[in-house]
Model the fold of this input.
Amino acid sequence: MKKTIISLLAALLASAAVFAQTPQEIIARMDQETNRFDKEGLSVTMELKLPLLGSFATDIQMLGDKYKMTADIKGNKAINWSDSVTDWQYDVQKNEITISRSKPSEKSDPENNMKMLDSVTEGYDVKLKSETDQAWYFVCTKSKSNTKKDDPKRMDLVISKATYLPISVQAKEKGVTITMRNFAVGVKEKDITFNPADYPSAKIIDNR
Done:
């Protein structure tokens, strides 16, 4: 019996060694999963925490060149849509929709903030801080060779063991804390396309 138990323990330890993953392997697998965002779309919540002003959360859905953002800032709710050609901004309180031309030369706010994930594997030294049954917790420190001024010095990244998708990524720069959480794959185009029939009573301000 004792020999059998020892043999089973040895087999378990051997299996654990096979499935053990380095931080680089985990990040590489996360990159594979997040690549699905391009074709299948992405849903994420972005939270900004600013000195004196407090925290503000925005729900973002993206698919290709289209996105929809829903924000609630101290009771003022706004919904933005864009298809990279035209932007629509709906002020819920005023029941007004402002239409304007997109600026192709400028990246959208959602696109700019998604660079946080791209930067994890480029220009950062990644260290596993801790883990649970559900997730890995990483500290990403800006490498000395990283000369990009806009990259934060540190990011905290949490990755799901079940899906390898990010659970959250957080960075702090110049007193502003940016947190992205609730990552999910899959967005339907109709859900992020502006439909004027949904707002029949709204005042339209066309600035195109």
Summary: The two ends are 81 Å apart (CA to CA). Residues 2-19 form the longest helix (18 residues).
